[in-house]
Amino acid sequence: MEKNETEAKDNVELKTADCLPDSHNEDFTGKLVIVKPSELKPEYRTSEHQLVLCTHGNGARPDAKGTSVFGKELYSGETVCFGRHQIAGVADPTKLPEWAVKKQKKVMSTPAQKPTLQEKMKSAKEKVREADAAKPDSVSKTKLIRDERE
User: Fold this and answer.
1) Rounded CA gap, 119 and 112, in Å?
2) CB 75, CB 48: distance < 8 Å
3) pTM listed for this prediction
4) pLDDT tens across 36-48, in order?
5) Cα separation of 31 and 37, whole Å?
6) Where is average pLDDT lowest: 66-80, 81-95, 102-116, 132-146?
7) Are 25 and 62 in contact (CB under 8 A)?
8) 8 A C-beta contact, residue 33 and residue 89
9) 3-state secondary structure of 71
10) Residue 6: its pLDDT value, please?
11) Burial code of 121-148, b = ≥16 C-beta within 10 A, e = fewer?
């Protein structure tokens, strides 16, 4: 079988039957979800456009008031947003197309590029200390704060 035939075979429309049982009632955050084909234009009703790695959103939680589910399309990496009612459920790993299994492993093994809040705070404090050290004639803000506490 040629590469194009394999891709065409793997790029099929996914349905609720391709989801884990009762997964629509789970928290979607960090999971691969399937967008209902009926929620997409006919030309986009393929696994390339239906598989979304959920990143966040109030709609990602089943008990939240909000309905927005944010994520990235597994195939393209494009940021997308859907309503919770547009999601069929969490994808069953045993029913995924071959390309999706490979791509999911690659995406999940890549560490997040975004720094955590603690890392941002640490970096900001270091910058303040460096700025204070560069001005030896002035009184440092951190020293003033320490003196006020004592």
Assistant:
1) 13
2) yes
3) 0.68
4) 999 999 999 999 9
5) 18
6) 132-146
7) yes
8) yes
9) strand
10) 45
11) eeeeeeeeeeeeeeeeeeeeeeeeeeee
